[in-house]
Amino acid sequence: MKQKQQGFFERFFELSKYNTNVKTEILAGITTFITIAYILIIIPMTVSEPLRILGQDAYATKVSNGAFIATCIGAFIGTFLVAVYAKLPFAQAPGMGLSAFFAYTVMLVMGYTYSQALVIVFLSGAIFIIITAIGLREAIIRAIPNCIKDAMTPGIGLFITIIGLKSANIVVDNPATLVSMIDFSQWQNPEFDTQLIMSATVALIGLIIIGVLNAKKVKGSILIGIVIATLIGVPLGVTKFDAFDLNLATKFHDFYEVSLFKLDFVGLFAGEDLIHNIFIVFMLVVSFSLVNMFDSLGTLLGAAKQANMIDENGEVIRMKQALMSDAISTLTGALVGAPTVTTLVESSAGIAEGGRTGLTALTTSMLFIAAIICAPFVSIIPAAATAPALIYVGVLMLSNVKDVDFSDITNAIPAFITITFMPFTYSIANGIAMGLISFCLLKLFTGKIKDIKLLTAVVSVIFALRYVLISLG
Questions:
Q1: Sorting pLDDT into bands at 50, 70 and 90, what band is 43?
Q2: Distance of alpha carbon 324 from its chain centroid, rounded?
Q3: Which has the closest alpha carbon to 29: 384, 397, 392, 357?
Q4: Can you list the alpha helix ranges (DSSP code H) found in 82-145?
Q5: DSSP percent split of the chain into helix, strand, coil, nearest 5
Q6: Which sequence ranges are marked TM in the entry (predicted)?
Q7: pTM
Q8: Largest Cα–Cα distance in the chain?
């Protein structure tokens, strides 16, 4: 390590210890941000969409504006905590799956308001802080069987791959087969949306560029690939410059009016049947808590293993600090108006670019704040340009499937379920949950009950009850 790098960042983040440097960490942080910047557009749209469906367009616009500022602030708080407290290269922000549950299940189907839904997120954050402080979340991680832990990294690899394939329109809906590849032969059909084909083309070109650059050991290959794919998308009509309107004065006004500290505790429990209301809220809090917990655990374990950030006990280094950062950001995110803030799987893109310390996360957190002003520039980057990064990282993470023990069928089936359920149910939490449940059942009915830890069984039962009760609710 050169002497000039022995400054504050070197001392605080111990760059030499992790064989990295300031330039690599900053490039990795930028890569992470660019890869996940789509949430700055998608989260506000998702949160406000139920209100538009209900015909509350004016209020929906206010919520969208407020949620945009809240998303930036919530992501900054969570990622900054990971940077300076946990000193790990992970980014945190409102997750897509939990945001969709927040909007379409809690708000649209169950009829709770935006302010009431934020209370549910706040309560799940409070629970997170308590169970993290007493070490329960760490204990749960230790209770996860090795076969499932080994399956998490390849499972997450497939999960982020399908996210990339879907966002680039390479994989599309098919009523006969559920999914299929985009039909490239339709590119001259006037009745077909050829922009879908152009998007898929840009993504495939970007993937080849990233692969070639990486094979030639070019530093910043993922970031360079994203930039080149963005430029290629200009003549093909994929990269658009009609950025969404960003009237900061209006957005901050709406943020203060509808999002910041606007949690409606009284309205959440109002109604004639108080006991029923409490039960429903309790089940929702449990649902948010379980999904967020296992999404975060899966991401931390999977990405950390890929980056060799696992200690001698097989645990993520500074795991408790990372989990506490997650817990605090969930609670504070709700206070500013953001859906559940969680550790994002797309952090793997920055890790693949060489990010190994909190300096990567610090860079990403600063960009989240800058995005409040620079959002139009961020929105220029199309999903087709960032999708190759996710697919490429999926390749790297899937290689860890070699660590899975398939010799014992009672371990192989839970591992296989964990790997396949993550992409096919579009949820890391579902993969882990079904893996745990199948593990316990297989061990129980094959006379290997000693392989089941008490906490493993308890978590499996809770997950099973969660599926049953939510379906009944």
A1: confident
A2: 17
A3: 357
A4: 96-100, 114-133, 136-143
A5: 75, 5, 25
A6: 26-47, 67-86, 93-112, 118-140, 152-172, 192-213, 220-238, 274-294, 366-393, 413-442, 454-472
A7: 0.79
A8: 70
